[in-house]
Specification:
Elements: H1 8-30, H2 33-57, H3 62-90, H4 110-124, E1 131-133, H5 137-152, H6 160-175, E2 179-181, H7 194-210, H8 214-239
Antiparallel strand pairs: 1-2
Length: 240
């Protein structure tokens, strides 16, 4: 069987991977969290359009699916882990360790572990075509990248413990059983898309009112709305 490697969707996926790689290098060599943020935003754009383009051009393929996960492992796993590791190192010593960062900083590596497990689970779980089980890795990656941007801009200073807690909590959310809604529209009508339209409207409001703080706020909103939705679905199922 002839396998086409360099299709347009695959080139977009590879662009996603390259953005993640460059962001990782920028973080670990220069500590450039500002550049890393914009690279990871660009990676997320490529990640969205590779699937969209594959469907539009009828070029979906098994290799494209696997390549997408490998690219996401870099841009949504390795690079965001480097962001959080840098934040931990720059947070200074905590009340329970005299070293700057100390060995506990390696807790943030759980982000990479969570991303790998999340992507592997997604690839074999057919129930995640219309919604997600656990936090999507691109959302987790953008959340971590936004914390790095806010830190680089002097708009946020997270204590050491908060960095470790944020990394561990994000890793857990990716492998959690919480069913989270996907922003995949079924047509453009209100019916069936009400939650998506309301969420996007709320995102616009948050961006206009909070500016650079909007991304972590949107992340929290997405998790909370998905959690409430999942719990309500469980209650309805129990009553049925």
């Amino acid at each position: 069987m002839k396998i086409k490697l360099f299709t347009i969707p695959n080139l977009l996926t590879l662009s996603n991977l390259l953005c993640g790689m460059i962001a990782t290098v920028a973080i670990l060599t220069d500590g450039d969290l500002h550049l890393a943020f914009w690279l990871l935003v660009l990676a997320a754009v490529f990640d969205f359009f590779d699937g969209f383009t594959a469907r539009l051009l009828h070029q979906s393929s098994p290799i494209g699916l696997q390549l997408d996960s490998l690219a996401d492992m870099v841009s949504s796993g390795v690079a965001p882990t480097a962001v959080m590791l840098t934040l931990a190192w720059q947070a200074g010593s905590s009340w329970w360790t005299a070293d700057t960062g100390g060995p506990w900083s390696w807790i943030v590596l759980l982000l990479a572990v969570g991303t790998a497990l999340r992507l592997a689970k997604f690839n074999i779980d057919d129930t995640q075509r219309t919604e997600f089980c656990g936090l999507p890795s691109p959302a987790a990656g953008l959340f971590c990248a936004s914390l790095g941007l806010l830190h680089a801009e002097g708009m946020l200073s997270l204590p050491y413990e908060a960095v470790l807690l944020a990394a561990a909590a994000t890793a857990w959310l990716m492998i959690s059983p919480i069913r989270m809604f996907a922003l995949k529209f079924h047509g453009f009508g209100w019916r069936g898309n009400r939650l998506r339209y309301l969420f996007l409207g709320a995102c616009v409001v948050l961006i206009l009112t909070l500016g650079a703080y909007a991304i972590p706020a949107i992340f929290v909103l997405y998790v909370v709305v998905s959690l409430v939705r999942w719990l309500l679905q469980g209650l309805r199922a129990a009553e049925a």
